[in-house]
Amino acid sequence: MPFVLMGQTALAPTESGVRQGRLLVTNALVVDGSGTPANGPRTIVIEGNRIVAVTPGPGRPVAGDKVIDAKGKYVLPGLINVHAHIQDERAGWPMRQDYQFGVWLASGITSVRDVGSNFEKSKALREQSQKNSIVAPRLFLYAVLGMNPAPSVENEAAIRTRVRQIKASGADGLKFFEISDWAMRVMQEEAHEQKLRTAHHAAVAETNAWHDIKYGTTSIEHWYGIPDAALRDGVQNFPGSFNHQYEVDRFRYAGHLFRQTDPVKLGQVLDGMVKAEVAWSPTLNIYEAARDLLRYQTQPFFKEYLHPALEKFFAPDPNNHGSFFLNWTSADEAEWRMNYRLWMDAVRDFGRRGGVIGIGEDAGFIYNLFGFGLIRSMELHQEAGFHPLQVITQATANNAKIMGKEHELGRVRAGYLADLIVVDGNPLADFRILYPKTEGVPQSGKIEWTIKDGIPYHAPTLAQQVRKIVEEDRKNPKPRGVVTGGDEDAH
User: Fold this and answer.
1) What is the rounded distance in angstroms from the CA atom of residue 376 to the CA atom of residue 462?
2) Which of 421, 487, 419, 480 minimizes the C-alpha distance to 453?
3) How far apart are CA 438 and CA 466, in angstroms?
4) Burial, 350: exposed, middle or buried (Cβ in 10 Å; 0-12, 13-18, 19+)?
5) Beta-carbon neighbour count of residue 406 at 10 Å?
6) For residue 12, what are the contacts with CB-CB under 8 A and spacing of at least 6?
7) Preceding amide of 58 cis, omega within 30
8) What domains are defined for the chain?
9) Residue 368 to residue 446: CA distance in whole angstroms
C-alpha cells in the first residue's frame, strides 16, 4: 500500500468547499474513465486544481496537507453532464440557483455542458464557477443559433454574422434546431472556421443525420434525425390530423418512429456517423415518462428534492414545454416501450460500430430532476446493454471528448484537472448508490466527496442543503411572473 506520512490530518466535512493545499486521496480503488477495471489501492495527489500523481502501493512516502482515506471506496472521474440547461425558474416560479448547482455536485457532476439558457446570466455564472466564488460545477456554454434572424431566411451573410457573434460572445459551442440544408451548410462552414463545436437538436425537419454527417456536426442530441434518416418509406406515417406544433401529437407519434425504420438504412446512418465522427448524446432518461408515466410521477426522490417551481412546471399544461401528458394512454406507453427497445438497440449498435456515445440528462423537463436525471440515464445505458465500465466512460471521458476537453477532463490521470468523486461503495455493482441520499432509497447517498477543480465538497452536506432549500421554498412559494430561465428545448 502507498505509505502516507504519519500525522497528516483527515479531511473533515466542515472543511467542505475550501482548497486544502496538497490533498491526498489514499487507499482508493480507481476507475479511471478509460474503460479498464478498478485498480487499487492507489494514492491520488492533488496540488491546486491538478492531479499531479496517481501512485500504486506499496510506494515511497507521500506528504500532503489533508487526506481523504478512501479505503474500501471507489474513486471515479467527476461525472460530466453533456446535455443540460441552467435554469433559475420554471413556469414563472423562481428557483434558486444553488438548488440546481448543489444537487448537481451532490450527484457527482463536476462539469456541465449547457445547451441553451439565458446566455448573459450563464456567462456570469460560468466566470464565478471558474473563480470558485460560487459552489457550482464547471460550466460550458453552447449558445443557441436561434431562428430569428434565422437560417430560415436564406441569407448567407446573416447566418455567418450570427455564428461570428456567438463566437465573439464567448460561447464554448453552438446549438441549433431545425434548419434547411442550405443554411446548415453555411452555418457549419462558419462554425468550423470559428472553431465552434456544434450540437444538433434535430427535429422532424428538412435536415437529419445525413446532413450532420455531411457537414460535420459534433454531436446529435436526443434521437430525432437518426431514425428519420432511415425511414422505410422515406416519411413517417403520420395521421392526417397530426400537428407537429401540438406537443401531445408530437410526443405521441415520436413513440412510433423507430418501428418505421429500415434496419439496413439505419446501419448505414450509424456507420456514416462513426466515419464522420458525429457523436450521439441520446438522453435516454428524458423521454422515459412516456413509457411509464406513473413511475415518473411518483418518484421517491420527489418527496425531498422536488422544488415547487419544478412541480408547477411538470404538471400537465399545454403552456409548459414537455408537460404534454393531457390524455396519455396505456396504448401510448406500449408504443414508447417498443420505441425504447429499438432506440436502445440502435445506441448499442452505434457503440459496437465505434461511435462516441455521451450521456446527458436534459433535466428540468418531463419529471426529471437535476442530477438524478443523469444517474438515471446511466442506469438506462446499462439497460441498453453497456457494461458499467463503458457507462462510466460515456459519462466521463466520452463527454469530455465531445466537448473537446479530452486532455483535461474525464480521467483520473496525472496532469488532468482534479475533478473526482469518492464513493463509499461500488458503483460498478449499483449505479443507484450515486443518487443523493433519499429517504426510502437505502442504496442512495454513497458519494462522500465531490472534488471539483481540486476543491473537495462533502456531498451529503450538499444534499442536506438542497433538501433544506426545497423545504423552505415550499413554505413560501412566490410566482415571479417573468420567465428568464433555461432554453425551452424542443425535445
Assistant:
1) 20
2) 419
3) 12
4) buried
5) 16
6) none
7) yes
8) 9-77+416-460 (2.30.40.10), 79-402 (3.20.20.140)
9) 21
Contact 17, 135 (CB under 8 A): yes
Q: Is 60 exposed, middle or buried (0-12, 13-18, 19+ CB in 10 A)?
A: exposed
pLDDT by residue (tens digit) across 257-269? 999 999 999 999 9
For residue 451, the SS3 value is: strand
Q: What is the DSSP string of 76-119?
A: EEPEEEEEE---SEETTEE--HHHHHHHHHHTTEEEEEE-SS-H
Question: Residue 98 has what pLDDT?
Answer: 96
Q: β-pairing, 74-77 with 420-423?
A: antiparallel
Amino acid letter, 117: S
In degrees rounded to 5, what are phi and psi of residue 432? -60, -25
Q: Could you write out the three-class secondary structure of 256-274? A: CCHHHECHHHHHHHHHHHH
Q: What is the pLDDT of residues 284-301, one digit of tens each?
A: 999 999 999 999 999 999
* Cell 471507489 sits on residue: 74
> Is residue 468 within a helix (H) or strand (E), and if so which, with residue range?
helix 459-475
For residue 53 the three cell numbers come to 500523481
pTM here is 0.94
What's the number of CA atoms in the CB half-sphere (13 Å) around residue 297?
11
